[in-house]
Amino acid sequence: MIERKVAVITGASRGIGHAVALQLAREGFALAILARSSIKKVKDKIEEIKKTGVPVFYYSGDLSSAGDRDSFLAETYQEFGRLDLLVNNAGVAPKVRNDILETSEESFNFVLNINLKGTFFLTQAVAKIMLRDVKAFKEKDNLEYSPRIINISSLSSYASSTDRSEYCISKAGISMLTRLFADRLAEDGIYVYEIRPGIIYTDMTSVVKDKYDRLIEGGLTPIKRWGYPADIANAVSVLCSSRLSFSTGEVINVDGGFHLRRL
User: How far is CA 191 from CA 42, 45, 237, in A?
Assistant: First the structure.
């Protein structure tokens, strides 16, 4: 078993996920990453993380596939022998934005299978491992084990976008998933949190930069700037520490104050 803590992160091949992985690596976590991209496509990103000096295990797989989830966790545990942190970051948007009256079942299934179903069952599997290891670690001296689960949702968990209804529904589901697992696992010392990003500048949002530049300047958010992946990574850093040991189920809005809903 590796001595350093191990973080499992989904969707860490780019954007927010990569920023989170890099931040955790700098803090000494070994990393196990599940993402859809082939290792060849993300080689530069992985090498950037490895330069911090931590072990990195990368698994190219589909979060919506039970077989891929099982294989990923089995190989991760074989590699490291422990799981201390799960960051559920992976998520997809609809391939095509359609009015809710035109949303197809194919698009609904594509988004929900990854964003919600895959996240739910990966969390369930990791939680079982953590529960088992909580008992095992208690029997060993001088070994700290304070597992955490952090879910990356979105302001879309409560803000309506009728041309991407499947995405909003998936993120609302992540909010309830957070509450449910926080309730179930708290007694065993496994704490669960949710981070709700706002308008974050990534390759996914770069195509609507002009639109959001205008909205932000017009007062959409009290803090008049874009958010960046590093803002989310900093929030993850706080939540996975031991400084919030009397909190679980908390929601941290990283959205420039959008959630204030001011008049």
Answer: 31, 29, 14
